[in-house]
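Final report, results section. Input specification for complex C-07:
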Amino acid sequence: MYAPLQNDSFLRACLRQPTDHTPVWLMRQAGRYLPEYRATRVKAGSFMGLATNTDYATEVTLQPLDRYALDAAILFSDILTVPDAMGLGLSFALGEGPKFERAVRDEAAVDQLAVPDMDKLRYVFDAVTSIRKALNGRVPLIGFSGSPWTLACYMVEGAGSDDYRLVKTMLYSRPDLMHRILAINADAVALYLNTQIEAGAQAVMVFDSWGGVLADGAFQEFSLAYTKRVLQQLKKEHDGQRIPHIVFTKGGGLWLEEMAALQPDVLGLDWTVNLKSARARVGDRVALQGNLDPNVLFAGPEQIRAEVAKTLESFGAPGAPRDGQVDSHIFNLGHGISQYTPPENVTVLVDAVHEVSRRLRQPR
Amino acid sequence: MYAPLQNDSFLRACLRQPTDHTPVWLMRQAGRYLPEYRATRVKAGSFMGLATNTDYATEVTLQPLDRYALDAAILFSDILTVPDAMGLGLSFALGEGPKFERAVRDEAAVDQLAVPDMDKLRYVFDAVTSIRKALNGRVPLIGFSGSPWTLACYMVEGAGSDDYRLVKTMLYSRPDLMHRILAINADAVALYLNTQIEAGAQAVMVFDSWGGVLADGAFQEFSLAYTKRVLQQLKKEHDGQRIPHIVFTKGGGLWLEEMAALQPDVLGLDWTVNLKSARARVGDRVALQGNLDPNVLFAGPEQIRAEVAKTLESFGAPGAPRDGQVDSHIFNLGHGISQYTPPENVTVLVDAVHEVSRRLRQPR
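Structure output:
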């Protein structure tokens, strides 16, 4: 059905198999920093107009691949499509973050929640299939969703927040309600990601963007337990291919061992984490993905190359295979790329990752 | 000159000496959640009007002590007084964060920076002396400042930020300029805190509120190194009394060992850190301060008591003294108290800390 994969370095690295370079992709690589993205966005009229139109979603997903030697594509969509399908009414005002029309603030609102009919998310699965075909085997396609906790943050707050007061008030005063929301979210996210896999996604990533705002203890109970519930339901194979699972908790550096115990294939890391130390802590169980500060891309080419080299050298060479497996690193930013990034600086970054990581693998 | 101290539990805990309960104070304990604070604020006309008036600053500093059995007072002021004294023009619009009239964005602006004349901060030192007298020995008084890096964030951004793009652009593209700013800030902060000590502060705290936004590597070079430069210059004694030094890096949980190596007396912790594990990592070298999520104060009394108990039990009992020293814990929030906190819930928290921590010290 699909053309064979020409560059499998990303999937191999996810599964801790040797590669001749460190694969690289960037969170939000299809986005506002690219003039061609902004042009398509204007045609589409709105962010959701872009995300719900198969042709536009395909077009913008492929844009960064035409500019840069990236080793993976990621579905163009939003982390909040699932609660939108639950009927909460997602919208994006220009220049602002996501907003829900109907926030979930009380027991009556929680009573209304259910795992949504996947037909309401058909536009996502259609986009996945269309992108997979358009990729024509160039690189693998990553599907994704927000984590149960991260979805709950937006569902209760109704929008982004800087103190998470409403969602944490519910968590501490009505933990029973919070657990009900999270259980529904987890089952919905698992079904959503499995349907993306059936539609053609070759790896899936759970973005726990707000896990790091939780207190130790609350993180394990309200975020990690439900990420686990997602992972336990996820397909590990499709069409005879292993489907790697990636978990990224921004601000989760203190909890790497607990996240690795859920047995995802890959852990995403933000820039506060030292890669050498993360490798020592969990590198024998999971591949590590990350973790350059996106703000490095505002510096000049020399500094970008130096910071890329520091990141790669901090992880170090993959080492000799044991039972066919190596410690592996997938290069990424520690968070989404900024809309203000000069596009030409991304070329410097991607090329430096390939060049330096090949050199790191040379015998000394 | 001053009345003898009636409650020295906070200072003893800072110095890892045994106490019969865990002392407690709260970051931003004198603040907007208190109706009496809001009344004084109206009289003063503005935040800076409040902070620069000795009588008002004294009044609001003592307000929470009249309501709650707190074990320490903290000077009412702002972390950004030092750059204001450098001439950058600090202001607070109602309901918004701090803002500088003149941001430091280029080499010409950096050339203008210097350690300010401490006379420009006389209002702070006068407030310290006035508060110390008004306390009349009830509890010790903590002085404070923003860290060199945190000051630099505001100085370059001109205000708060959610991506720190401008300050990080300077950091990555002109590290030489960033180092010049930080060196000046460090020397200014050290002089400022030493002058607070001379004016009557019995402990001093460095708030590295934005250290946690830095990448590993950048944190050590641009935040930690300058906190060290401050600590190296700080008075360790005044008037025959030891003056404890407290360092708090929000989001710094991964770097506790490196912070402990600077040999402050106390490390502040945010709520993402597990106290038991922090104690195991550095508890034999420093006292630990923290770390309840301020949002717990939006729950009911039962839940607040339960979360307080969990926090205290996570640290555990102080243990038997070795050479007169114990592992010690100072209870606090992991960040400033929210302006929306119901004041009566703070009573529940403070009383629970005293009650549960006394019980924890009973032989079983």
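The first strand of chain B starts at residue 73 and ends at 74. Chain B touches chain A through 38 residues (CB under 8 Å). This concludes the modelling results for the funded period.
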